[in-house]
Amino acid sequence: MSELKVSNRICPVCEAGCGLQIATRGREIVSIRGDAADFFSRGHICPKGVALKDLDADPDRLRQPLVRRNGKLERASWQEAFETIDANLPAIRKAHGAQSVAFYIGNPTAHNVALALGFGVLAEATGTRNIFTAGTVDQVPKQFVCGLMFGDTLTVPVPDIDRCDYLLMLGANPMVSNGSLWMVPDFRGRLREMQARGGRLVVIDPRRTETAAVADAHFFIRPGTDAHFLLAVLHVLFRDGLADAGDAAAYVAGFDEIAALAGKVSPESMSAECGIPLDVIERIARDLAASERAAVYGRIGTTTQKHGSLASWLIDAINVATGNLDRPGGAMFAKPPAFVPNTRGAPGKGSGFVPYRYRSRVSGYPEVNGELPVAALAEEIEEEGAERVRALICIAGNPVLSAPNAARLDRALGRLDFMVAIDIYLSETARHADVVLPGTTAFEKCHYDSFLSAFMTRNGARYSPALFDPAGGAFDEWEIMLQLAAISQGAGVHTREGLQALEDMVVRQLIAAATSDPFGAAHGLDEDEVFAKLGNRRGVERILDLQLRVGPYGDAFGRVPGGLTLAAVEAAPHSGIDLGPLEPRLPEVLRTPSGKIELAPELMMRAAEALLAVPAGGENGLLLIGRRQARSNNSWMHNLPVLAKGPFRCTLMVHPQDAKRLSLEDGARAIVRSPAGSIEAIVETSEELMPGVVSLPHGWGHDLPGTGLSLAGERPGVNSNILTQDSELETLTGTAILNGIPVEIEGLAIP
Known about the structure:
Elements: E1 4-10, E2 19-25, E3 28-34, H1 47-50, H2 52-57, E4 66-69, E5 72-75, H3 78-96, E6 101-105, H4 113-126, E7 131-133, H5 140-150, E8 158-159, E9 166-170, H6 174-177, H7 187-196, E10 200-204, H8 210-213, E11 217-219, H9 226-239, E12 252-253, H10 255-263, H11 267-274, H12 278-290, E13 294-298, H13 300-303, H14 308-321, E14 331-332, H15 377-382, E15 391-395, H16 399-402, H17 406-413, E16 418-422, E17 435-437, E18 459-462, H18 477-488, H19 496-516, H20 527-533, H21 540-549, H22 566-571, E19 576-580, E20 597-598, H23 602-613, E21 622-625, H24 641-644, E22 651-654, H25 656-661, E23 669-674, E24 677-685, E25 693-695, H26 710-714, E26 741-747
Parallel strand pairs: 6-7, 6-15, 9-10, 9-13, 10-11, 12-20, 15-16, 16-17, 21-25, 22-24
Antiparallel strand pairs: 1-2, 2-3, 4-5, 4-17, 8-14, 18-19, 21-26, 22-25, 23-24, 23-26
Helix pairs in contact: 3-18, 4-18, 5-14, 9-10, 9-11, 9-12, 9-14, 18-19, 19-20
């Protein structure tokens, strides 16, 4: 019998990035537990990390490609799978143009460095503008306003919770998520520490979430009215002479414009609209201003609503107006070791963020950050025309469950001429594909948070090498992306040696960019020497080593003795190097043309003026919101025994007052209707909810034919996105409105 081996590993499932200790015996995963010595997560682990053992062993997980033969997906070799793609994809692109090909990128891509880096190569090779991602059902409004204010969409301030005294939180539930656009593992432990030093957490949410339950105060808010509440807070700050940008004032443009806007706000009207008493709003504003170290933070509840961009902007406008932006204990900017634009180029100034460079073909929805609203994907497939989407490459995503008006998209995918899915399961979306390419397991690939490190609550460089080699000669995701790039360009199916030559070309392009940056540490280095010094590394590890070495902490290939290299991070115990607490970064973090924080972008000022012009009086009926659950952040988690066990969690949560009024019985079924469709769900009465609000979790609905998730199919639940619309979107970014949806509910008799 093989000896027991214990290895350190970073969990790749969610944004927490917890440090794990994996006990293995040969190829078997024996146990998974939190790594108490990990500087970032400090031993924290949740059920998702433990479930990686089930994921690795799941018999439903795909281990070889599938190819559609005579209408049925069947197992195939990698060679046949790539040859099938080569026989179809280039022909469609040649006959109908680059825009006939589209991508959908799911959120696991953000946790997979090979997919994240490889997609850039693939997208450039394909040349399409039809890129759709999970971002427009999640975070795009936040990134949009950060781009406008700070010059780059990855320049996102996060609460410095380890030094914070007062944290105001809207529409977020980090007790479950451990942060979102905020890497904050062990949130509960950090909150306890904050409260022990006298700090306070105040939560604003239509539901008394797991986070609200441990907060010092919680206030219900009518779904979709966070912007109204925040405008009232802004008004009080300026009315009472409490607004002061503090040390950031020298780097702020538009402070007077914000003051003028605040003066137009009727706090009484905003209070009536959001449902929070005016005296509570005034107390919160004064507490924010009086606290030495405070921050305002909002997440998915604030971004997936009608006023998502406006709410996101007002959160950071208040952080500025209270002097809490870029201040220890306030809302601060991480300084990642690699990949993030605000550590490259001229510090403190840049070309800025330019949205709306093009629009979708059918409805003219705007491009933001290089992507179009996923709500437009179905119509881009359905609507005839010269640039109709005929081929789709779906990468680690399941939009049939996650996108608005999911039933329509499910039908539309059946009209594609050709589809490729990169997925570990035959999901509700992948079942439409002509070729399914399985990714490697979490333990057969290295891990580095190339995207998420921009949101760390403490600076660090964290890396995990692969524990196992890919089984059976499988292609890893980096090789898959390079192969698809070669095929897209009409270069045919490459051997592994051919892919290596393509990779060398990509690496040399990255070296040229680094050595030509006059502000970079590697400026002027000989490109061939840099290439040679990367040694025998291959794949994403070679690119990661390059980016770490030319980054803000890097060794610049010997110019900075003791600087970061991948070897140094590998050698560090417990998955990484602690680079210390967040530090003030103004003005160098900015990339706006003015070199200032643009506090009053024209787009946002117009949006605020438009909201103020709308007469008071919102929806009076039932409003539907989502619900995040620790055991089902993504749809594939419903197929893992350790996460699926326990009570059934896909329930329609209803306040007892509403249940009584509608004659709904706990445990009975009810019909939920919206303009987009209807579903049947099991009722769960709960006083967690604000009266007039009902809630369904996302990611369920595993009852579609042709899928390969057997355990999930035993308790399929219902797809809440059948109720969401693809025609009513957040105006500025085209983000789906998933919260605050008017619905009608009718109880069904118990059989």
